[in-house]
Design goal:
By secondary structure, the chain is an alpha/beta fold. It has 8 helices and 9 strands.
Amino acid sequence: MGKSNTRNILLLTATITPKSGVPNLTRVDPRLRLRDYHEALEFYLSLLSKGCDGIIFAENSNSDVSSLQKLVEKHSATEQVEFIVFDGLDYPVNYDRGYGEFKLIDYAMKQSKMVSTGVDKIIIWKITGRYLVRNLDQIIAHQPYNFDIYANFRNYPKCWVDTFLMAWTPQAYQIGLNEVYHRLKTNIPEVPEGMAAEELLRNWLDQQPKTLKFKRRFNVTPQVDGKRGADNKGYSTDNWWKFSLRSMLNMLFPWLWV
């Protein structure tokens, strides 16, 4: 269980208006994406009284977020939500979304007032901002007592780390993840064809010093909802059986990382 004096801050990453030609991205309509972010942000606002102490909404296409700010005002949560918007898509589209997202995270970690408050114990929960992690309150409530980086590592079918949900302390981020986006370029000659950013990140994290305390499996299996960017299919309908299977395997065979 997490300690009561820990501040749990959500970092929601967003690209409302993606550049054209991004590999493996089908959900490109800014109106649909903004609607996704609106729905997700409204859900996460409901967690501000359920273990979440603040929200950072970070957007990297320099898009209009006024409708989202009005949503926050409607929930009387302006003191608990921080918006960070900038023009961060100034890189070749073939580098893909993992590069862009961690470039955005780097910017947010440096610019956020919530991150730099000086509070002794802060945990950043990074979430891909269009997705709803329906049981996030339970994941936060059952976090390990002491960790630096908390994420779901997989060995099957690939050596991989899930990036839709990760957690870290600001201190650990500086050691193990700061400017890691430079290592997440895909579709370049130095990277094997078809290798995903999640695989590159796993390779990097496996090389980190033993002084960093990793928790490589979530204590509670995330239940994800929302439309996937790659194919517009829904997690809740298409992947329910995977959630059920993984939940069962994590209980019965916790050493089997799938």
